[in-house]
Amino acid sequence: KMDDADDDIPQLSSHTLAALQEFYLEQQQREGMKTSQGFNQYSIGSIEEDWQLSQFWYSDETASSLAKEAVVAAGSGGRIACISAPSVYQKLKERDGKDFAVCILEYDRRFSVYGEEFIFYDYHHPLNLPENLLPHSFDIVIADPPYLSEECLQKTAETIKYLTKGKILLCTGAVMEEQAAKHLGVKICKFIPKHSRNLANEFRCYVNYASGLD
């Protein structure tokens, strides 16, 4: 009989159901607030940091400065690649620039909400990239390797050198200065990048061209 089949369907208790409904209501209210406040999907913090993935977003001022530098360095109609630097990508998108193209290479698939500009990237496989990412096709590559280790920097450097026409903007710890010079030929800048949450490690920017960050 059909009635017997219905008996096998697990039923939620009234308490659980009420809690679930409350959760969904709060979620809808949060989404509604985002819409009413003119929520920008590209604003820093629209996707929250995941510390397990060693994610620490730049402060608004730092992300703006790096985005501005990238646009100037790329030049008119330039192409910019952001490797593990979603805050800079978000700031570039906020600029609503029609004079440059940008993509984001990122391990965290939450950033796939950015559509075709999102490219899944795992630094353990530095050249495992889509066919349409042609070698030396970006005017500048901005990278912020997720870990302060030579292995991580060395593998990310392979990706950077594959993608860039020449210009490199690297953000990483001050302790990586020697390795950064060794693997990418970059030098430390005067500009001091800041994060929205203070990090224990001193952080610096490195470039291999005459930049506006000095």
UniProtKB/TrEMBL annotation:
It is found in: Cytoplasm. SUPFAM superfamilies: S-adenosyl-L-methionine-dependent methyltransferases. It catalyses: L-lysyl-[protein] + 3 S-adenosyl-L-methionine = N(6),N(6),N(6)-trimethyl-L-lysyl-[protein] + 3 S-adenosyl-L-homocysteine + 3 H(+). Keywords: Cytoplasm, Methyltransferase, Transferase. GO terms for molecular function: nucleic acid binding; protein-lysine N-methyltransferase activity. The keyword Cytoplasm applies. Pfam families: N6-adenineMlase (PF10237). The keyword Transferase applies. InterPro entries: DNA_methylase_N6_adenine_CS, Efm5/EEF1AKMT1, Mlase_EEF1AKMT1/ZCCHC4, SAM-dependent_MTases_sf. Transmembrane segments: none annotated. GO terms for biological process: methylation. This is EFMT1 methyltransferase. It comes from Bucco capensis.
